[in-house]
Amino acid sequence: MHKFYPVAALSLVCAALLPLAAQAQLRATPQLGGSRAPAVTLPRAVDTTPRSADFIVAVVNSEPITNNEVRARLVRAEQQLAAQGSPLPPRTELATQVLERLIGERAQLQLARDTGVRADDSMVDEAERSVARQNQLDVLQMRRQLLADGVGVGQFRDELRNQILLTRLRERELDSRVRVSEVEIDQFLREQQESSDLENIEINLAHVLLAVPENATAAQVAAIQTRAQQVLARAVSGEDFAKLARETSEGTNAASGGQFGLRTADRYPPAFVQATASLREGGISALVRTGAGFHILKVLEKRQAGMPGMSVTQTRARHILLRTGPQLSQSAALARLADYKRRIQARQADFAALAREHSQDGSAASGGDLGWANPGQFVPEFEELMNNLNPGQIGEPLVSRFGVHLIEVQERRQTTLSPREQRELVRGLVREKKLEEAYVSWAQEVRGRAFVEFRAQPE
User: Fold this and answer.
1) Fold designation for 311-416
2) pTM, rounded to two decimals
3) CATH 3.30.300.30 assigned to 192-304
4) Residues 220 and 213 sit within 8 Å (Cβ to Cβ)
5) Which of 152, 156, 298, 403 is the most exposed place for a label (fewest CB within 10 A)?
6) Does the domain formed by 12-177 have CATH 1.10.4030.10?
7) pLDDT reported for residue 267
8) Whole-number pLDDT of residue 29
9) In DSSP terms, which residues pair with 369 in a beta bridge?
């Protein structure tokens, strides 16, 4: 039993905005100690008003891609690059990359539909809840924000559905192609031991961005710099950085506390790497000026890529699983688990007793106890909710493709990994890298089989 790791080989400018929510198993091959997906931020307003009548720029197996589709994705990519302080390539070059990404996605989505891959509404509902949780909103609040930013709820859900379809297709096509041998684990460990290249250093940074508009006057720049210095002083004095980011940052990842997620140093703007090179975990940089504005950076994590930490945080949780079907609808399962939660919190029922009586999972006999779990041991949607709970806290009912779960976190602890556990963590990392390589080859195969007719240059 293993998990399909989200493919990381896609280019930054065309990175998916949406979580890859559909996974095949609840239990999964462990990821490298504490590896996690970057927090998902909501798309900001994108001006898709056509300068002239919309037109077709390419046709993929008789399915058109329009200029407005390219423009919407292009503007979104430019916003992301600017917020991160990365240099923007020429717009025509970026538009070409965006169009190629859309062509590849369209060909893969057609293959998914033709081969029977499906994403039902419950999967889309859970993906929508996942995005809302990562942005610290409920679904209704998120939908209002999307509408205020000019993004239709139907459009957003269609994008979620497409991402789920792509994930399930890639899982089916690629998972069986990748195996990791003990020799490969040994070789990987040897190669990583002494390396100091930027591509072998992983950093998780959070930032606060105070944006400087184009053509800002000297007085405007000075005023923004003063505000940035004030925010920096608050951060250095010990204020919660994530809270500062949510309150003051104008970056696209502000809602997630300014986090970029763990990535290799060569995937950050050089100015960010230089400003944090001498900082340890928890350190805060001086002001960093880029074309986007003034940045304040905090080092959340820094480590040698691919080398598991000797110590990890383990979580012990338990759950109740109700499987949905003709005898039990999803809404009924949600209501039943919500009632269980109410009764447990009111001390009218015991979690373990309810799990033994009602849970439809192998853990039922042990009161729903899942044992001590390392980071990455569960698939993302389950682990995301679990990681957001404090010991003793019960989450809201969670919908997955298996049914509906009620999760309680019991304990957390720091533990030293055994040599065997370390090798299993490394196995997951090696497998992820091999999946990335397999994805590139497979995506080229799918693209090569598609009939693509270019009609016009995107504008």
Assistant:
1) Chitinase A; domain 3 (3.10.50)
2) 0.58
3) no
4) yes
5) 152
6) yes
7) 82
8) 31
9) 318
